[in-house]
Specification:
By secondary structure, the protein is an all-beta fold. It is 1% helix and 28% strand. Strand 7 and strand 8 form a beta hairpin. The longest helix has 4 residues. It is elongated.
Length: 288
């Protein structure tokens, strides 16, 4: 049975299907204007979806009476990114439909429905205007760009800022790269024969991989590395004269496997553990 109305106004609540969202209240406490749709539902162009893909499917608007342009966003959310949220989406069980091929190659075989973990929100092209906060991991399977495409993560790892001393110029730097997972500290040691290493280096670096560069200040002091342990580097100068020098200390991390700089094939052929790497430009932050 179906009914057709020119205009339908519901002052309190609209529900469809079975079930009831008790968070909307009951009786006198019912929330005015609340809507429950058992789903699935489609908003926008009904031909956007060939199969049922979600409980709520939103396509571009094709209503000729609408004042918005023909090319428009499928979903426009306006509101502050704080409680109460303008949009909340929670994930649920999901089923994918895989079409198999026949053995003779004549055409597609049966459709196999496979349960899998669903994404909470699946959206095509998205424009975001305003502040965006990501509380957990952010995964990008394509390029990651910022500054209107001026910064691309698959390129060198740069920063680019207005020049601090030249009007109308810019300053760009890139990160150093090498064949190991190394960390460093640097500084100046003066009137002491000990350089204190960061406390966390005990669990982070291979102490036996430490290298130390010293640059005496003011005069040659014949400073040498007498010994080191997991907390200090001990220095010694000729005749016990006061030490004043710059230092630069590097060490290799021990919390990850050693990098294999050269190998034959593609990224998938890397002979080490790919789960310990994150490659800019190759499924950035997706460890494959």
């Amino acid at each position: 049975m179906s009914f057709q109305f020119d205009t339908l106004h519901i002052s309190h609540q609209l529900t469809t299907g079975v079930g009831y969202p008790y968070c909307f209240g009951l009786g006198e406490k019912i929330i005015r204007g609340s809507v429950y749709l058992d789903g699935p539902s489609i908003t926008g162009d009904e031909n956007t979806f060939k199969t049922v893909e979600a409980s709520v499917m939103i396509g571009p608007c094709n209503n000729e009476d609408s004042p918005i342009p023909k090319v428009c966003e499928s979903l426009s959310v306006c509101g502050p990114l704080k409680d109460p949220y303008s949009l909340v989406v929670r994930a649920g069980p999901h089923f994918t439909r895989d079409v198999t091929c026949t053995l003779d190659g004549a055409g597609p075989g049966p459709t196999v429905v496979t349960p899998s973990v669903a994404s909470a929100l699946f959206i095509g092209d998205v424009d975001i205007y305003g502040f965006t906060r990501v509380k957990n991991d952010l995964v990008a399977e394509g390029e990651v760009k910022s500054q209107c495409g001026g910064h691309v993560l698959s390129a060198k790892k740069n920063f680019d800022i207005p020049h601090p001393t030249k009007e109308g110029w810019r300053l760009t730097h890139t990160c150093p790269e090498g064949p190991e997972a190394a960390v460093y500290i640097r500084g100046r040691v003066k009137n002491t024969s000990e350089i204190h290493l960061p406390e966390y280096w005990k669990g982070l670096v291979d102490i036996n991989s430490i290298t130390v560069n010293l640059t005496p200040i003011g005069a040659h002091q014949d400073v040498i590395i007498k010994r080191w342990d997991d907390s200090k580097v001990y220095l010694q100068s000729k005749g016990g004269m006061p030490i004043d020098c710059f230092y630069y200390i590097m060490a290799e991390r021990k919390d990850t496997e050693k990098l294999i700089p050269e190998y034959r094939g593609t990224i998938e052929d890397y002979p080490g553990d790919n789960s310990q790497r994150s490659i800019a430009g190759y499924h950035y932050d997706v460890k494959t």
